[in-house]
Design a protein that fits this description.
mainly alpha, Transcription Regulator spoIIAA, 2 domains, 6-stranded mixed β-sheet, two-stranded antiparallel sheet, elongated
Amino acid sequence: MTAQSVTQRESTGLILTRLMPGLHTLQNYQREWLFNDVLAGLVLTAILVPVGMGYAEASGVPPINGLYATIVPLLIYALFGPSRIMVLGPDSTLAAVIAALILPLVGADAQRAIELAALLALMSGAFCLVIGMMRMGMVADLLSKPIRIGFLNAIALTVLVGQLPKVFGFSVKADTLVDKATLFVQGILLGRTNGMALLIGGGSLALILLMKQWRPHWPGVLIAVVLATLVTGVGDLDQSAGLVVVGGLPQGLPSFHWPQVFWSDAMLLLPGAVMIALLSFADTSVLSRSLAQRGGYTVDQNQEMVALGMANMCAGLFQGFSISSSSSRTPVAESAGARTQMTGVVGALAICALLVIAPNLLGSLPSAVLGAVVIAACLSFADLDGMWELLRLRRMEFVLSVISFLGVAFVGVIEGIVIAIVLAMLVLVWNAWHPNFSVLARVDGVKGYHDVARHPGARQIPGLVLFRWNAQIFFANSEIFRSEIHQAVAQAATPTRRVDVAADAITDVDVTAAEMLLVLYDELKRQGIELRFAGLRSVVKDRLKHYGTLDVMGHDIFSPTTGNAVNRYRETYQVDWKDWDEP
């Protein structure tokens, strides 16, 4: 074999391991890891099954599709995912989004719900894949913390209200939060509550929450599911008490199936697919980074997006629905001793074995318990404390969070998020349009120059206005810059000879702003006032030079620091001024 062919093989191998990090893990897999990964995978399976089934029902599709949406993503992520122990699968947050998007389009047609959920997974996965391949993972930053807190609280409330009828033993058909709440209350008042369902569902919810509080390392969900299934099966409660149960699952593994939908369906679901892609990547990115930090390794966020996209697309092609990372199941795998993604592979294979060998094992599982599992998950990601913290720290961001909450809860998931993002962008534009600025002066006993508005006793150098601008100067704020400098000159205690702009925070000057500077320079010059800059970055100087601005204003109007600008002014004008730290 020639040296060139060896080099080509090595290059191909590097590309493959970069695209499929699981190959690198497999090539370097250590035998002593296997026991930990297998044990953690079996422990994880006990949580994956009831959670996957519960989130499927919350998404508006049959429970079996939740298991399909668990098996395939675990296998795909094991190959493409950069994180070593991340667990992917159905997600309580996305469940409400999926249900809100597809249920208004399907009526009572369960098969159409499956088809639309699969289409949504395909589309959201494609967006993730494209964003990752174009290395644009930062787009998830559009979902700021206030928006996400409001969104999660609204989703928690929506899912909770949607699952409560199931815990009470009856069902309601409604699309909006208000309608769901109204029909739930009416159902209780009309006596539709099934006492046994409420006892088992409410008891399961209490057990899960109490064990999470007092025995966090115990599998509360698994214990609740096993106990409820045994009690229902032994007591034949589905017959004697009219308890709704999951029933036997279809035997066999998920098969390839292209969603049978219309082009119009894709157009209706397109905004939702984009939103799901951003939400799932935002959650996955945060969890992936925290796992990598604890494990002492790094992850490529764009590869994370690729892996998430592949997992979602394959879930859609094998009768699943949109998935994301799990901040509840991943810690289970981690605490059980998982070392690599082999844990997820073991979990997926164990679910496959369940579907092939014992599909009726959970036939007596009450639907009320699945509702309790979903409600417990909602209560875990609701963040009311986060909203109150925003109120304490920054009221504008609290307002954005409230708008996100109200929009998602009462207008619609996509509409609410879009409204909040648009408002966030408007706030961003407003802040850039009206940036922070100040007139600087000397405070006795304190180094540097400080805002006179915050230090009323500060002393200004006679004849010199030090004006600080804390943003770029561009078309939207250039006239504000000009007006505020004239205002500072007018309010100066002594006639002004020079204006020095403390410009270290100015990152850019566009063409409109450069023209404004020429106008300002000419206006000040006619008043006998010089215009200079201190601490302006070289890249901004180069831009002004390129515009030709400096050919008019001069190339020697810059000082390296504000202190140097003051010294140069004093040397030029010999003003009667003595600084506090001068002998």
